[in-house]
Amino acid sequence: MFTNGTHVYDVLAERGYIAQVTDADAVRDLLSRPGVTFYIGFDPTADSLHVGHLLQLMVMAHMQRAGHRPIAILGVGTAMVGDPSGKCDMRRMLTQADIEYNAGRFRKQMERLVDFRDGRALMASNGDWLLGLNYIAFLRDIGAHFSVNRMLTADCYRQRMEHGLTFLEFNYMIMQSYDFLHLYRAYGCRLQLGGDDQWSNILGGIDLIRRKDGGEAYGMTFRLLTTGDGRKMGKTERGALWLDPERTSPYEFHQYWRNVDDADVANCLRLLTFLPMDRVRELSALQGEAVNEAKKVLAYEVTALVHGEEAAREAERQAEALFGGAGRSETMPTTVLERTKVAEGVGLLDVLAAAGLVSSKSEGRRLIAQGGLTLNGEPVTDPNRTLEIGDFPEGAAYLRKGKKIHHRVVLE
RNA sequence: GGGAGGAUUCCCGAGUGGCUAAAGGGGGCAGACUGUAAAUCUGUUGUCGACGACUUCGGUGGUUCGAAUCCACCUCCUCCCA
Q: Which of residues 371-410 of A touch strand B (CB under 7 A)?
């Protein structure tokens, strides 16, 4: 099917999503007619999706806009096993309750990018068909079709051979393969998409469908979101860049994109926004200081996709207030202090720690010693300084840590 | 089941009785330079009532004036053989 007259396969290719395809011509041909059912799995191993998943959601959305039908699989069953792909260590074992909870959060976040109304996209939990499997029956029915010799040569397992791989995780590929077979049978799903680290798991499913049902299925993987020098994108001090506003505020999310490396801007615009390619090319051509314009657009667009336009505008306003000059805003992170306490004198270090600006008072001392803190625009030099009522003109004091981190303290 | 090796501060990784809050690198934070970028340079990176004190080197107990370093037991991991 087509978007603006362009075949969706070509859209994905042009925007740079595609890493590997089992049979490019066959997949392109399959997608030429609308209504193709395809699936992507998401293992709920955390209580929020992150930017890595965002890329998968973008692809789903592109495909849906082109008239195809996505199935989002919440990996409640597979998360019980744990995907060894791309992991050096075994994951922490999650309880089923955690997994179910996480799946619920995933569901909400996905609904922002993919339209699940009226069966336009489906969502299912693979726990529904995996958790109740009978061990022996499953081994005979499915396990018999997998060659251990071949599985061991799969990249995801080979990497783990030196660090140890448990039998539990070794079964992951079989679980995911079974998912594909199940969806093939239940929904006629013949196409599985996923991150490039899922390649061997996807191939496993395609083989299984052929062996069990003689059916033909396809797979396509997408480039992982990496920086120019190959590192995973979306890492912050606090871990991943989450899609949940409780874990990563829209402002923080916006700033992440506002600050991406010049070299990554073009990539992000293509992969993480729906801007037309003409516009993307125009922005990507900017040089030098003008790259900032492209970053502003990028930050706004991605934030709007994930948190909505209102939140994106708000984040933008906030950024302009802080970096544009004033350096104060009603919406910046705020800590509230009791007026009476301040009247007695409150240690600045205690406030810094309470506000989460520093993880310990020692860190606060270092920060001040190195001239990294300002109070109402004035550098702080005395680590033992206390906050007085006089520091709160109009009821608020403004702290700035380094160049970019702003915090407001108000009296009540 | 038998044998060998290992567990160090956010990560990797030195350290094998006092000179060790613990080398070096990575990462983080801050300063300079800048474009809210990168690169580069500099400082810093256990905690606290801070020129001092306290707590860290898988866990527990012991030897010693003194242990991350020695001993015993335990837990976990890796490798070789079965």
A: 371-372, 401-405
Measured from the CB, is A262 under 7 Å from any atom of strand B?
yes
Q: Which residue has 């082109």 as its token pair?
A: A66
Chain B footprint positions (protein CB, under 7 Å): 28-31, 34-38, 43-50, 77-79
Please state whether strand B lies within 7 Å of residue A315 at its CB atom.
Answer: no
Q: Could you tell me the pTM of the whole model?
A: 0.87
Query: Tens of pLDDT along A127-152?
Result: 999 999 999 999 999 999 998 888 88
- pLDDT tens digits, A312-360: 999 998 888 888 765 566 677 889 999 988 888 889 999 999 998 999 9
Q: All domains of chain A, ordered by start, with CATH? A: 2-222 (3.40.50.620), 235-324 (1.10.240.10), 334-411 (3.10.290.10)
Q: How far apart are CA A335 and CA A267, in angstroms?
A: 37
**Quick check: is A361 catalytic?**
no
- Cβ of A366 near strand B (under 7 Å)? The reply is yes
Amino acid at A256: Y
Longest dimension (CA), chain A: 80
